[in-house]
Design a protein that fits this description.
five-stranded mixed sheet; binds adenosine-5'-triphosphate; about 220 residues; about 30% strand; single chain; binds zinc ion
Length: about 220
């Protein structure tokens, strides 16, 4: 296999997207030699290499043109995009397709015993989140001022710890909220995983491979609908 011109795909190393990403590649006929310890994995049958990273790094790797393709939750992609725009950077990438896994919602939640009368209830309150940019955009759209509390983990314990009045966090089943005495009061963003490509054009061979992969992904996803 030629080593110079491999298509570089960034995937989450370990987490909620990893298994679905590996399964999708397999269904698309891409054979990968996975090695748990290694950052890079190679395909046996196609000129593809997989970079296995933290999901948070994937948008930046695409925006900076370091890798060719990536699979990432729209929540993380858009949070990073808003962050860079707020910092005055211009960003460019191509969203090739939304995928049928990684579904979750970013929601506001408060103490289960507290009364809630719409988002205005949270005016001037402190809200704990790992998604400050998505939260700010939503609250600005609603015209409700709030105070930020940035936490990159343990967000759901912030109200009981007295750090914040509410949280803005990812939810899929709601079990974690319930376990922490919280109730979901507002969905602010719905997310799925998506396939993205760097903006800078790929050479003809690589682009042809991307087009083939995309056709296969469409086939796989239509079959499962
Ligand atoms: P990493 O170590 O790569 O930074 P992480 O802990 O930030 O991982 P995961 O919890 O593995 O991330 O979630 C990755 C993505 O999976 C989320 O950003 C989101 O798009 C999606 N996802 C789907 N369901 C859920 C859920 N219930 N909770 C959190 N994320 C979910
Ligand atoms: Zn992460």
């Amino acid at each position: 296999m030629q080593t110079q011109n491999r298509l570089k795909i960034a995937l989450q190393k370990k987490g909620r997207l990893s298994q679905d990403c590996a399964a999708l590649l397999k269904q698309c006929g891409v054979k990968i030699n996975w090695n748990e310890q290694r950052l890079i994995a190679y395909s046996e049958n196609l000129p593809i290499e997989i970079l296995r990273v933290r999901d948070d790094d994937i948008p930046g790797l695409i925006f900076d043109g370091v890798v060719d393709l990536g699979i990432i939750g729209e929540n993380v992609l858009e949070e990073e995009e808003l962050g860079r725009l707020a910092a005055g950077e211009t960003i460019a990438y191509k969203k090739l397709r939304q995928l049928d896994f990684g579904g979750c919602r970013l929601s506001l939640a408060i103490d289960r015993d507290q009364t809630y009368n719409g988002v205005q209830t949270l005016a001037n309150q402190r809200i704990a989140t790992s998604y400050p940019n998505l939260l700010r955009r939503y609250m600005q759209q609603q015209g409700v001022p709030f105070k930020n509390c940035l936490l990159n983990g343990s967000v759901e314990v912030a109200p009981s710890a007295g750090l914040a009045a509410a949280i803005c966090d990812l939810v899929s089943s709601g079990a974690t909220l319930e376990a922490n005495g919280l109730k979901e009061v507002e969905v602010i963003y719905r997310s799925k995983a998506c396939l993205i490509q760097r903006a800078e054009p790929l050479d003809t061979e690589k682009q042809a491979l991307v087009d083939r992969l995309l056709t296969r992904i469409q086939g796989v996803q239509q079959a499962s609908e």
